Amino acid sequence: MTESVFSKKLFKLCQEGTIPSKYCHILEGFYLDYKEATTSRVDEKTIDQFFITLLSLVEKQIHSPFHFKNFHKKITSPFDYYQFGIDFLTPLIDKEHSKFRNASMFKKIEKQLQQKENVILFSNHQTESDPQAISIMLQPFAPDIASEIIYVAGQRVTQDPFAIPFSLGCNLLSIYSKRYIDNPPSEKREKQLHNQKTMQEMLSLLQKGGQIIYVAPSGGRDRPNENKEIVVADFDPQSIEMFLLMGKKSKKPTHFYPLSLYTYPLLPPPDKVNEAMGEIRKTHFCSIQMAIDNELDFNSLNSISDKKELRVERAKYIQNIVTQNYNKIIQ
Fold first, then answer.
1. Does pTM top 0.90 for this prediction?
2. Above pLDDT 90, what percent of the chain?
3. What CA–CA distances, in Å, run from 286 to 42, 97, 131?
């Protein structure tokens, strides 16, 4: 079999030591997976061009890493990272069998945003490519939201050279999740200060109004349980409380919606959390499913006077709705 143009370029850079062997292995495996998943729908020349571009972007991040600000606006010029991410992921999605349930809800959301009100989506999270997947699914009926939504992102997607090219095409509020903030202990204070600054940036955005923000209160991706079932990871009550507080502080009407995602087969995460950067990427051609539900109403919890208990019950209330809808879309 003839070696592809991409493979030749990758081999050359690996031989020169320009690309660390870890990333050579990741790129080679991902290329072969992607090719197998898309070959009947995308010609080999196009696939090669996608990966030649990705290779050059990864190489750039290895030698000159991009420094993300607390709030990062997507970069579309001189290179359009947003469109690259969309174009790269689209061939992997079986659009014919993919569905966004209750998508008409976004008409109401669009009106709220136009009135300079804010919207926060409390959601589960399954793959690195969730932002691109969400944009692809939103484009047919809410293209402005698809391109302008802001994602609360953890350190992996802003520090891993492989993930950075896709992150550059997203609007991001970068934070350190509870899972990583204590590691290493010497950096804990610095990470806490970073998170505080990010919250200040978010508050400033919400005070302007007209913002839509996606956040996964679990702080990480869903993974298989002991029965090998992909379940919604537990939501963190403190994370939810912070966003509710930011909404109040903004003095702008802020609306909260539950969003459920099933994107897992698209780019499954490792079964176990790995703190080191550079995870193996496996991909498949598959349908993806999403669902949004009615605006969250916390009035039913008004009788709870204990603040700690109230936070816990709010998190349960939101997670239950997300999980119920998730269970429906995976059937």
1. yes
2. 80
3. 15, 8, 17
